[in-house]
Amino acid sequence: MTPEDFDRLQTLLASRAGFRLTRDRMQLAEHRLGPVARREGYHNVEAMLASLWSRPVASLGWSVIEALLNGETWFRRDRAAFEVMERELLPALTAARPGGRVRLWCAGASTGQEAYSLAIAALEAGAQVEIEATDLSRQAIEKALSGLYTSFEIQRGLSARAMLRWFEQVDDQWRARSELRAAIAFKRANLLDEAADEGRFDVVFCRNVLGDMAPERRARVLDGLERRMVDDGCLFLGRDERPDGDSVAFRPVAGRKGLYVKSAAAARRAA
Amino acid sequence: MDPRTCLIVDDSRIIRKVARRILEDLSFDVAEAADGAEALDYCQAAMPQVVLLDWQMPVMDGLAFLRRLRDLPGGRAPKVLFCSVETRADRIAEALSAGADEYVMKPFDGEILQAKLAEVGVVQSPS
């Protein structure tokens, strides 16, 4: 891969996915694109990229984009966020919402571990939740939808008891049980696209997404999240992520790292 | 935090070595035993805080050790993590009902072991 190729990849990722492909990921990019080139029938990565640059972005472009995103995730990542959800938010929201129905959105759900962790928390608490889980990567969403995890993946963050309770063994993999899968609607969606306004969420998990985004795209994503949240909706970001400077719509909750509430100012502006 | 002791019980020297490295990085004091009988001797002399326990071993296997351990004075205190190539759901359930606090399917890596230790509350969860 030439430095020019890498520059163009950076532009592609930033414009289509808002993703900041940093220069230190050049080797990683080369490594990840190898299998894509083989799958798409090219001799090597250079040949694939040459073909990519000569045409408008279509399915090949998206395969390249997906391969370069950061899909790292595991069950109950940053445990504290799930504990706040289980102990405080779910009981409070269940009591406050009509019919006890709570709507959650996992924005940037990757391969589904976070959405399944939320579904487990809700079902164990007897809460009625509808979970929508979206990701830009079609491959990630397909895996999430299958609910199938290797023994490496299933052990990362999940207790053995939770694994036995909520997953069934299928050969050497583990599949989310049907009641768990029924609690979640997985969809491919781009956080940069205009939000189709189809109902609002009480709680949004958008963790470890903003941190990888090009700074000039963060405001747009936060704006899109805010539009789809109820007026006192809660937003969980990754442990070290903050909306500061990119949005005035959220204020932090003291003592709850990564948790933000949609602020009155945003509610007024929307009204 | 005070140094805590983890006893690694496995008949494979390689597994003990790999696990020792991970546990020492998590600031455990590590002791080793090659089978259940050796491990039981160790526990009778000084009860560790954590036991990482293989299942299939000569002399005394993991399940037999675990049942004997839980009957010792103070033997309910250690957090026991089974760590085995056995991955059948019913066998995992059997180990848990025999008194194991967690179960690690081999092969494992540092991230998995740390996550499982966090699950039983002896280390911080990874981030």
From TrEMBL, chain B:
Keyword Phosphoprotein in record: yes
GO biological process: phosphorelay signal transduction system
Ranges where the Response regulatory domain occurs: 5-121
UniProt xrefs under Gene3D superfamilies: 3.40.50.2300
CDD domains: REC_hyHK_CKI1_RcsC-like (cd17546)
Annotated InterPro entries: CheY-like_superfamily (IPR011006), Sig_transdc_resp-reg_receiver (IPR001789), ST_Response_Regulator (IPR052048)
Pfam families: Response_reg (PF00072)
Keyword list, A-Z: Phosphoprotein
Source organism superkingdom: Bacteria
List of residues that carry 4-aspartylphosphate: D54
Name recorded for this polypeptide: Chemotaxis protein CheY
Source organism of this protein record: Brevundimonas diminuta
